[in-house]
Amino acid sequence: MKLICIGRNYTEHIEELNNERPDEPVVFIKPDSAILPNEQDFYIPDFSDDVHYEVELLVKINKVGKHIEERFAHKYYDEVGLGIDFTARDLQSQLKQKGLPWEKAKGFDGSAVIGKWLSKNNLDSIDDINFSLFKNGDEVQKGSTKLMLWKIDELIAYVSKFFTLKKGDVIFTGTPAGVGRIQANDYLSGMMEGHELFHINVK
Q1: What is the domain extent for residue 131?
Q2: How far apart are CA 85 and CA 100, in angstroms?
Q3: 1-36: per-residue pLDDT in tens?
Q4: By CB count within 10 A, which of 21, 27, 33, 56 is most buried?
């Protein structure tokens, strides 16, 4: 199982971090050890003073595929979900300044929250799914798949050029604007189309 993550897929998020708009999807990998076990609290790692939440719509791959054409991509997933890509922003900034890989800032233990899954057949349109992240009861991020630079099927087609997709792989499709710092005792919850798909305590 691998976690394939997409960066810079929402214009407003690109602008809030002062990044350049990419010509193609930005792709990075989190190891499966990054997955935060169900019902476990998230502990801020001691190597960072600036861990940020990034809520993202997730796609679970349901069969093996390579060089998938976009028109067939919908056959490779039945469920979508919601999660968090926790990022050690201070460490990431240091690595980016030196032109080094981001893995230490993105793939550390517990940095990937994977919530419950919803059947895509119960959603009106895969290209118009609304989702939000709440911190201590306040909505801090709000997104929709209609605002993605690259839609879900486009991402599957693109990623499968480089990586063989296997059953159980998860694609993190990028975060909308509104990312921010977490602190101990924060409570985070994720909503998609009226369904709460995860909630976690920060320690």
Answers
A1: 3-201
A2: 19
A3: 999 999 889 877 656 666 677 789 999 999 999 999
A4: 56
